[in-house]
Specification:
Strand content: 15-25%
Distance between the termini: 33 Å
Strand order of the largest sheet: 2-1-4-5-6-7
Shape: globular
Number of helices: 10
Helix content: 25-40%
Order of helices and strands: EEEHEEEEEHHHHEHHEEHHEHEEE
Number of strands: 15
Mean pLDDT: 88
Radius of gyration: 22 Å
Structural class: alpha/beta
Largest sheet: 6 strands, antiparallel
Low-confidence stretches: 239-257, 395-399
CATH architecture of one domain: Up-down Bundle
Length: 399
């Protein structure tokens, strides 16, 4: 798959923008703050229904406008699809496929993209939420219906937390809060599917991760990843350092079943039963996919806290490459669009060259850079300059 044409209206700093693209590598060059990242961010949004820089869609709508529009003409082998997304400042977003309305969450079925960015260092060094997001965005691209499951889970979680806070304020005992059982059942049903999907994805990423890391670093540092599940006792959100230890099963402390002894749904339900008194004390749900993490290891040690800056960067890039490999392997649409947003400036020359070699055979690669010299020569095929929200072809404007 590749993007043939990208059109933006009232998106970020663009009143209007038209960008003609094609297979191969395109480098977007311009000083910081000119709008390079805004262009590639819009492509990433179509694929993941999220921005890699902000959590709210409001920031994507140009100041003074009511809505932003992203249009992308996508080439799928011999077929072309027009994907359109309207991001509304108020109200629900809207989407179209070939001018016919579709649900917004259907867009990742047609637009596949993997984006590398400086923010990716947080995959290794940041909070558990960053690693959860990495998995969930990949899951949605591979199985778009999971966007609905995740949205429903978040809705039930909010309602359950509201009930817990209300019960805490009223001083209700756990045994008197029978209405919580209804929310528990729905939370377990949705959450167990998310947990199982994430665990399976972590296992699938293992092989591609090791190969990608070796291709970037040219060394075997034994990169591995393992899920840490709150329903089995791990609580990285509440206990600093928990992500560096083995997940303690709920059965070890509270008598509930440990991992592998029963279904995910049964373990989740039992964890909620055991934790209910604590949840009433704190007014928050203490187990579920919203509190899980993934333990990243290098040379038998947690990457977070032990890996060097270069090793952390290599791990993060390798996870993105592994994600792209899974999409390439399983998708009927072919390669995802690879986006490297100001990544090469963060890498030494050797890693730049190895990364360029690793991505060289993807159908479409989009690179942003403040300085063209940062980009390996083999990736400099077509150059487009970006200046103050304007798209300039190579050679336009000042030299």
């Amino acid at each position: 798959m590749h993007v043939v044409r990208l059109s933006l209206t009232d998106y970020r700093n663009y009143a209007r923008a038209e960008l003609e693209l094609g297979p191969g590598t395109t480098v977007l060059v311009g000083r910081n703050g000119q709008g390079k990242t805004n262009l590639v961010e819009s492509i990433g949004y179509l694929a993941t229904l999220a921005s890699h820089r902000v959590s709210s869609d409001q920031a994507l709508v140009r100041a003074g406008a009511d809505a932003a529009i992203v249009r992308a003409l996508l080439a799928h082998a011999e077929r072309e699809l027009l994907v359109e997304l309207q991001l509304n400042r108020t109200g629900a977003n809207r989407a179209q496929l070939n001018r016919s309305p579709v649900k917004t969450r259907e867009l990742p079925r047609y637009a596949h993209s993997v984006l590398f960015a400086p923010e990716d260092l947080a995959i290794v060094r940041g909070e558990p939420s960053v690693r959860r997001r990495l998995l969930d965005e990949l899951l949605v691209q591979r199985t778009p219906r999971l966007a609905g499951v995740m949205s429903d889970y978040e809705r039930v979680l909010r309602q359950r937390n509201t009930l817990l806070k209300s019960a805490r304020a009223r001083g209700l005992a756990a045994e008197k809060l029978t209405t919580l059982d209804i929310w528990d059942e729905r939370l377990v049903q949705l959450g167990a599917e998310i947990i199982d999907q994430r665990v399976a994805l972590v296992a699938e990423l293992a092989g591609p991760l090791a190969l990608a890391y070796a291709s970037i670093v040219d060394a075997d540092h034994a990169p591995t990843l393992r899920p840490l599940l709150s329903i089995d006792g791990a609580d990285p959100e509440a206990e600093p350092g928990a992500e560096a230890s083995e997940a303690t099963s709920a059965g070890d402390e509270d008598g509930s079943p440990g991992p592998g002894t029963t279904t995910t749904a049964a373990r989740f339900a039992e964890a909620l039963r055991v934790l209910r008194p604590k949840e009433l004390e704190r007014g928050v749900t203490l187990a579920g996919p919203h509190r899980d993490d993934v333990l990243l290891m290098l040379n038998g040690l947690p990457a977070k806290g032990y890996a060097s800056h270069g090793e952390s960067w290599s791990f993060a890039l390798s996870l993105r490459l592994a994600s792209a490999e899974l999409l390439r392997r399983d998708s009927a649409t072919g390669d995802p669009v690879l986006v490297l947003d100001d990544v090469f400036a963060e890498l030494d020359r050797a890693r730049r060259e190895r990364l360029a070699a690793a991505i060289g055979d993807y159908e479409q690669v989009l690179v942003t850079a403040a300085v063209l010299e940062d980009v390996p020569e083999q990736l400099v095929a077509r150059v487009i300059r970006i200046e103050a929200g304007r798209v300039l072809d190579e050679g336009d404007g000042d030299a």
